[in-house]
Write a structure and sequence with these properties.
Blueprint (H helix, E strand, L loop, with lengths): L4 H22 L5 H8 L3 H29 L1 H19 L5 H17 L2 H9 L6 H26 L5 H8 L1 H13 L13 H9 L3 H4 L6 H5 L2 H30 L4 H28 L2 H20 L6 H27 L4 H30 L3 H18 L5 H5 L1
Helix pairs in contact: 1-4, 1-6, 1-7, 1-9, 3-4, 3-5, 3-17, 4-5, 4-6, 4-9, 6-7, 7-14, 7-16, 13-14, 13-16, 13-17, 13-18, 14-15, 14-16, 15-16, 15-18, 17-18
């Protein structure tokens, strides 16, 4: 059992993202119509909540990245999940836009403490080899959340109002907090070794230390590399596109004439295929050169975005297939390429800085797409913008390389 403990930690990383990402980023979309109907807000007023959460999460990320590097991810995850439970209880009692926005300020802290960067670093420290597969397993949680939580919200509201549904969903982070406290651990000297550590030690003992490991880059060194800025540009443009599309998809499909259940199925399909993409492309990155897998993912997303620009209801399903698969692989590749290029020593600060940049554009994407819909009565211009940004990402991805190997 101890030998396979690292894979259990990969699954725990998946559950972290299932809960935090699911309840904050994807699950809330199922409540949008109910909130708009009860309070009479515009779509852009409602979606400003997501801009607040994502931008604040981005600006907090580098500072908490220092904490991750010093104290480790486990304590942050436990604190973040506890805060999430409290905020979801507060959401059931929201009474104004100001109250809503204040809750989403708290959600920003949750996304930093128990979100993507922390989960990736937590899982990465358990793997020397097959890291791509392990990160892919963890990131499945972000897609699985998109499959489960919107449908859960819709299902709950068939038998109760939205406030009661929020109270029921508060139990989810509470249950996970207990599981995380009992099972989540970080590797320690003399304890269970990371997966592949024995192979690394054997290579070093055989006089092949250079092949076994390249030295990690410091934060300052990473900032001076072309790979850091290439990854930052890719993350900023693609995360804008991902969040603009996914956060507005439910309302977009309703505009195209789909029933609420069908719109929920559309979200489920996109997140389901993203889940497949995260695992499959993470596995492929362990078998083939990760950079080429990275480029292919962006190309798939661009093809899906182009289908969305047609505003053709019959093409929406093809768009979701392409966009979902590409998005899933890309999500894994950005994290994997960053860890592989720079190492784990300063990973908290490096990933935190990239998150600062991409979360800002991601939040802007959610709000701007909704604002474009308010102004023009259509999401078509927003999808055209998405296509243009994905082409920029494709060019930037060509400049990514393994900076540790270059330095060595």
């Amino acid at each position: 059992m101890k030998r396979y403990y690292p894979w259990l930690m990969a699954v725990m990383g998946m559950l972290v993202l299932l809960v935090s990402n699911g309840l904050i980023v994807t699950g809330l979309t199922a409540f949008d119509e109910s909130l708009l109907k009860e309070f009479g807000w515009t779509r852009s007023e409602l979606k400003l909540r997501d801009l607040i959460t994502l931008v604040l999460a981005g600006w907090l990320a580098p500072f908490l990245g220092v904490v991750i590097d010093k104290v480790g991810p486990r304590k942050l995850i436990l604190a973040g999940v506890a805060l999430l439970a409290a905020l979801y209880y507060a959401y059931a009692h929201v009474h104004s836009l100001a109250h809503l926005y204040l809750i989403h300020v708290g959600f920003a802290a949750v996304l930093v403490a128990a979100g993507l960067n922390v989960a990736v670093i937590f899982v990465s420290q358990w793997f020397v080899t097959q890291r791509g597969t392990a990160i892919g397993i963890a990131l499945v949680g972000t897609s699985l959340s998109g499959m489960l939580f919107p449908k859960l919200g819709v299902q709950l509201m068939q038998s109760m109002d939205w406030r009661a549904a929020f109270l029921w969903e508060t139990a989810i982070p509470v249950v996970f907090l207990v599981l995380a406290f009992l099972f989540m651990r970080s590797p320690r000297a003399g304890g269970i070794q990371p997966w592949g550590a024995d192979k690394l030690a054997a290579q070093a003992a055989g006089g092949n230390a250079a092949a076994a490991s390249h030295g990690d880059l410091s934060y300052a060194q990473a900032l001076r590399t072309r790979t850091f800025w290439a990854l930052a540009v890719v993350a900023m443009t693609t995360f804008f596109s991902i969040m603009a599309a996914s956060a507005n998809l439910f309302l977009h499909m309703r505009d195209l004439g789909f029933e609420p259940a069908q719109a929920g199925n559309g979200l489920g399909l996109m997140f389901g295929l993203a889940m497949v993409g995260k695992f499959v492309f993470g596995l492929l990155a362990d078998l083939f050169q990760a950079k080429y897998v990275f480029l292919f993912n962006i190309a798939l997303m661009a093809a899906g975005g182009f289908c969305m620009t047609t505003m053709n209801a019959e093409l929406i399903w093809f768009a979701l297939i392409l966009f979902g698969l590409g998005w899933g692989g890309l999500y894994t590749m950005v994290q994997l390429l960053a860890v592989n290029a720079f190492g784990l020593t300063s990973a908290g600060k490096i990933l935190g800085t990239i998150t600062l940049l991409d979360a800002t554009t991601a939040g802007l994407g959610v709000w701007l797409a909704a604002k474009i819909s308010d102004l023009t009565g259509s999401y078509a211009p927003a999808f055209q913008l998405i296509c243009a940004l994905l082409l920029v990402a494709l060019v930037a991805a060509c400049f990514v390389r393994d900076e540790r190997r270059v330095a060595a």
